[in-house]
């Protein structure tokens, strides 16, 4: 089975539709599937519900889809760096389901593992728990969270073999494995594709059984969200 597609647009052409639930990996701007997001924007699909830790920044990452009004709802945990996100939410133009960061990761992981729901103490006594089932375990109150199973998951990895076995680098590993696992169809953008069998089995972070399609993007932009430099102690 050939999992490699010639472009991001080709990989998404027959699987993305209006009104879908999508998951997008990455943390801040680190490890986001830049080419796949651009292809999704160019597809013109709208009324999307997007699961992602954050929504990129203005003009980059998922921020591009906010500007084109293709996203109807975000399920995320951090939205602080995107002014257009803030504006749309406060103007009631965008639905938002705030989810604590660890809970969001576990909802995706549970979806990929076939677990429909789980109980957690995170969010008990807050707005996060409103309308959700709560139970007592060992003297503590827990809130039930439903798993997330997106129609399509878009992920980013550093390297893949032709069977889809993935290797991530550092912070880019945040949310990507869980998002890719959870998707009914998972499309992964990588910087390098090697022959099957050439990766050390002990270095593989996510097996290819979770990956349906691969797209090569050898030169992603990798924009830095906030550049911080160390000052010279002499002030020079």
Provide structural commentary.
This protein has 236 residues and is α/β, with parallel strands linked by helices. Helix content is 20%, strand content 26%. The chain is built from six helices and twelve strands. Strands 1, 2, 3, 4, 5, 9, 10, 11 and 12 form a nine-stranded mixed β-sheet that branches. A three-stranded antiparallel β-sheet has the order 6-8-7. A hairpin with a 2-residue loop joins β7 and β8. α5 runs parallel beside α6. The protein starts with a strand and ends in a 20-residue tail after the last strand. 38% of the residues are buried. The mean pLDDT is 94. It comes from Pseudaquabacterium inlustre. Pfam families: CoA_trans. Belongs to the 3-oxoacid CoA-transferase subunit A family. InterPro entries: 3-oxoacid_CoA-transf_A, CoA_trans_fam_I, CoA_transf_BS, NagB/RpiA_transferase-like. Keywords: Transferase.
Q: Helical content, roughly? A: 10-25%
Low-confidence blocks of residues: none
Mean pLDDT: 94
For the sheet with most strands, the description reads: 9 strands, mixed
Structural class: alpha/beta
- What fraction of residues sit in β-strands? 25-35%
Radius of gyration: 19 Å
Shape descriptor reads globular
Q: List SSEs in N-to-C order.
A: EHEHEHEHEHEEEEEHEE
* Total strand segments: 12
Count, helices: 6
N→C terminal distance: 58 Å
